[in-house]
Specification:
4-stranded antiparallel sheet; alpha+beta; Alpha-Beta Plaits; 17 strands; 7 helices; 237 residues; Structural Genomics Hypothetical 15.5 Kd Protein In mrcA-pckA Intergenic Region, Chain A; elongated; 9-stranded mixed sheet
Length: 237
């Protein structure tokens, strides 16, 4: 079944104007769908011809935001020659790419998009966007380990930012970071004499992996998408 959207949303997705402005254009009677005058609330799909004062407005690219429960063994890369690369694993018909990374030997939530402008906004550390992980290490840890991790650990010559640590069991903890250095959690643990056995990302900002089976992907819900855009300073009309 073809994916339909409201006529005013068509105008925002093509970058023509806001929804309010689109509503005004529709009310003025100058917008047509397949030759008939459009009404507020009409639904359209890519097969429809939408025109403004007789000039057809082409359908462009719809922005996609996808959440994926990455299994261990899948590599976060768009390079097609890499075995089990994330793009081939998902098999989406549109050209998408991952936002950030998740190590091959880690599992959990990763976001993908075809919106190149959003990537840096999500990854920039000054925005302080939270990422939450569930981690198991190779032996039980004590309170000083949690405290040291919380304060920050020197990794490759510079100290990590303070973070939140929550004990789950003798050898498992949740960690909430606001930065995303390469293999950061593994290196932090290693610096304190521990080895990570499993690392699973459960959340990026307000988006969680909950409800996604391993290897499953879904488009963000309207609410998740709105919150994501608002969090990086984009306010959809």
């Amino acid at each position: 079944m073809a994916h339909t959207i409201r006529i005013n949303k068509f105008f925002t997705e093509q970058g023509i104007c806001s929804r309010r402005e689109a509503d005004r254009l529709i009310e003025s009677g100058i917008i047509t769908i397949n030759g008939r005058v459009a009404k507020l609330g009409d639904q359209v799909e890519p097969a429809d011809l939408i025109a403004r004062e007789g000039l057809v407005i082409p359908w462009g690219q719809t922005t996609l935001y996808i959440k994926y429960h990455k299994p261990v063994g899948v590599t976060t890369t768009s390079e097609s020659h890499v075995a089990r690369n994330i793009i081939a694993e998902i098999g989406h018909p549109e050209r998408i790419f991952p936002i950030g990374r998740l190590d091959k030997d880690s599992s959990g939530l990763i976001l993908l998009t075809n919106d190149g402008d959003i990537v840096n906004d999500i990854l920039r550390t000054e925005f302080g966007h939270e990422r939450e992980y569930l981690v198991r290490v190779d032996r039980p840890f004590d309170r000083p380990f949690l405290d040291q991790m919380s304060r920050g650990v020197v990794v490759l010559g510079s100290q990590t930012k303070p973070c939140r640590m929550i004990r789950v069991s003798d050898d498992r903890f949740r960690i909430i970071l606001t930065e995303g250095r390469n293999r950061q959690i593994r290196r932090m643990c290693q610096a304190l004499g521990y080895r990570v056995i499993t690392l699973h990302r459960t959340r990026i900002m307000h988006i969680t992996v909950e409800g996604l089976r391993v290897g499953q992907w879904k488009e963000l819900t309207t609410q998740e998408r709105k919150q994501l855009l608002a969090a990086i300073g984009r306010h959809p009309d």
